[in-house]
Amino acid sequence: MANISVSDEAGAIEWYSTLFDRGPDTSPMPGLSEWRFAAEFGIQVWVDADRAGSSTVVLAASDLDSLAERLSASGIDHDGPQPGGGQRILPVDDSDGNRIVFSGE
What we know:
This protein is an alpha/beta fold. The chain has helices at residues 9-20, 64-73; strands at residues 2-6, 26-29, 32-38, 41-47, 56-60, 82-84, 87-93, 99-104. The chain has 2 helices and 8 strands; from the N terminus they run βαββββαβββ. The longest helix is centred in the first third of the chain and has 12 residues, at 9-20. 19% of the residues are buried.
């Protein structure tokens, strides 16, 4: 599980639920929410104000243009898909400054 540290639990759950187009799959303890994308892979959003804003996660996406449109319609700001590392990327930042980068062709 990749871990993203945030300062505001309720705000982070709302933002990441919008980003992933669904709520968390589990909340195993106070301050921790998890989104699972495969049996052995997922994202943990953990409340840790001292470390908030220092996380970067890269996720594959099959259609960056559709994703960018959905995020824009949902109110998540971004600069659109752009070249990066031999593919295209769509970086977005949460309110703490954590960076989530979607990559694809």
